[in-house]
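User: I'm curious whether this sequence folds into something compact or stays loose and floppy. Could you predict its structure so I can see for myself?
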Amino acid sequence: MKIKILLALIFVNLMHAQKFYFPKTAVTDSVVLEKQMPQLASKLITQAPMLKLKKTNKLAYLDNLLRLQMVAKDYKTSITTLADYRKEFADHNMAGNKFIAYEFYSLAKLIEEKKKISFPDALQKAFNKKYEGLPDQLITKVGIAVDGDVPASRKLLKEALNKQKDKDSIDYTSALALCKSYLNYKTFSSTKPQIVQLVKLKDQEKFITETKDLKTKNGNTLTITIVRKKENPAPLPVILTNNIYAGPFDSYFGKRAAVYNYVGAVVNTRGKRNSNDENNPFEHESQDIYEVIDWVSKQPWSNGKVGMIGGSYLGFSQWAAVKKLHPALKTIVPQVAVGIGIDYPAQNNIFMSYMLQWINYVTNNKLTDEADFNNFTKWDSINTAWYKSGRSFRALDTISGKPNRIFQRWLDHPGYDQYWQKMVPYKEDFANINIPILTTTGYYDDDQIGAMSYFKAHHQYNKNANHYLVMGPYDHGGAQSFGFTFVNGRPIDPAARISIDDLAFSWFDYILKNGKKPALLKDRINFQVMNTNTWKHAPTLEKMHTSTLKFYLQDRKGSSSVFNPPAEKSFTKQTVDFKNRDQKDTYHPVSKTDSIKTTNSMYFESEVLDKDLIISGNPAGFFNVFINKKDFDTDTYLYQIQPDGKAFLLSTHIVRASYAKNNALRQLLEPGKIEQIPIKNSIFISKKIEKGSRLALLVGVNKSPSWQINYGTGKDVSDETIKDSGEPLEIKWYNDSYVEIPIYQE
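Assistant: Here's the prediction. I'll summarize afterward.
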C-alpha cells in the first residue's frame, strides 16, 4: 500500500513539474504569442492538476476552465462553463453578473465570426442582448465588472512573459498564470473604453444621477451622489450610505437603492473625492451625517424619510449617525459593522498589523489606492520585516517607508477610552435609540465582534430596543450581499443561500413603506444552524442555547472526560521565547488526513462524542493561569474533528489579559500569582456536530507578524521591543480552567 501511495505522489509531482513547449520568441513577438497561447491553453485543460481540481474544488476548476477555454478561443463552451460556475457560486441567479466582462467578450467574438462584422459592432450587439436580459438587481454592478485595470493587467502579463525569457518550455503553474494574465489583458484592453461608455448610456436611460458638493456648518466639504430611477418621479424615501471608499461603488450603492424603488444617496467622507479637508477616518461621521440627513430629507425628491445601509466601515457609519439621532432617520441596516476600538483597529485590545495597510488604502488619495492595498507581497514583507527586527510596533509605519500620523494616534489609545467612545453610542447613549434596526453578520465575518457589540449594548441599555439580528454562515462580503454556495471552501446549507440585499430592502419596505415584515424575522435573533438546513429564532442571545458544556484544560487519562471537572488540581506548562523569530511551525495530526497548527499553543482533545449535539452561541468561561510576567495575549481556537477526520474551525478568541476584565481599564497581572482571565467576545457560531466527532481546544499565546507582540513588561505594548522580552514567558494553564460551550437542544 505504501508503495502505491508513493508512486501516486511521484506521478502527481511529475505532472506538476511537466513542461510544455513555449518558444522564447513568444516573449517578444506578439504574432508568435497570439499563435501559441490558444495551443498552450488547450493543453492545460486536459492536464492532471486540472482533473484533480475537478474532484477536489469544483468552483476553482470551473474558474480555471472557463478562462482556459476563452484563451483557447472556444468561446461557445466558455459561456456554458461560466453559467455552470455561476450556479456553483450562488443559488437563485444571485451571481448572474459574475465575470460578465468575459461573457461580453466571448459573445462578441462569436458574433464577430458569425456575422463577419467588426469587433466593436459585435461587442455592441453582444452587450445590448445580454444587458436587456438582466434583472434590475444585476445591472447595478455591471459598470464595476467591466471597468478592468488595463495598465495593471498589462504589467502582470509582461511579468509573466519575462519569466519565460530565454526558455523554450513552461511548467504547468506558470502556464496557468500566464493564460490568466493574457486573458485579462486581452479582454479589458479590447473592450473597456467602448463597454464602459455603453454602460454609461444605459445608466443614463434608466437613472438620473447627480453629484453635488455639500458644505457643512463648520466649513467642510462632502461629496454626495444622488441616484433616482427615471420612472419614479414622485418623492420617495431616501436610502443613505456613508462611504469612505470613494470610487465606482458610489454609483453602485446609489443604483442599488434606485432599482429597489428608493432614492439612493451616497456621501463620501471628509477628504474623499472632491473634498480637500483632512481625512481622519471614523472621527467625524457622527457630526457630518446628521447634516447630510438634514439636507437629503428636505430635497424635493425625498418624502422626508431616510434609512441607512452599508457594511464594514459603512456599517460603523450608521452607528455613528445614531449617536445624535436626526428625526428624519427612521431605520438603519448596519451590516458587518466595524466595532471601532473594539474589533478594529484592535481586537479585544490587541492592535493588528493590517491597520496600517488599510489606513494607506483610504488616505493615499481622494479615492482608494487599490494597487497598494492589493500588493499583498509588499505588506507581508513589511509585517515580516517588523516581526524579524524585534522593533516596537510603533516602528511599523517607519519600516513601511511612510510614517503615518493616524497610525500613531490610534496606538495612543490602547484601551477603549473616550477617543473611541465619542465616535459611536456609548452605554446610556443606546437608551435613546428608538428606531427599528436590522443587523446582519456571519460566523466567518471579520467584524462579527463589532457587529455584535452594538447589538448587545443596544439591548442592554434599551429594554425596548426594536433591533433584529440575522446571522448565518457568511463571511465579511457575504453578510452584506448574499450567501455564497461555498464559504472557506466548504458548502453552506441551501437554506442559508439568501439574498442579503433582498432582505435589507424588504426591511426598508416594512419600515418606510408600511410593507410586510420579512418572513425570516420570526424573532429578535434569527440564526442558521449549519449542517441542519434550518433557521432558528430566539428572543435573546442567551436563548440561542439551552445548556452549556464545560471543556476543561486537562489531558484525558483512561476513561476521564474533558467535560468533567478535574479530580485533582494540576497544570499544563507552556514556555514561549519571544526572542526566537525563526521558530518553526508545529502541527498536531488529528487523523491520517488532517492536522492542526499548534505553534505557541497547547492542544487538548475530547473523547469521541456518542451523540449529535448543536453548538449555538459563543464560547465563554475563564482561564486560571500562573505567569512570570505582568501581561500576555491569549489565543484560543475551538475545533470540531469530524468523523471523516477533517478539522473544522468553530470559534476563536484573542484578548490582552490585562484588558480581559475591562476593555477600558488596564489591570496588569501579578507575576507568581494565579490570575483569572475571563473569556468574553469570542466568535459566535451555530452548527450541528455529528456523532463520532471530537472537539479540540487550542490555548496559547499570540506571537505573530499579524498582531502586536506583548512582551509582558507592563509598559505600553506599542513601545515594547525585543529587548524587553527578558526571560521566556512561562505559563501554567490550570486544569480547572474551562471553555464553556453553548449547546442547543430541542
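Summary: The two ends are 46 Å apart (CA to CA). The longest helix spans residues 172-206.
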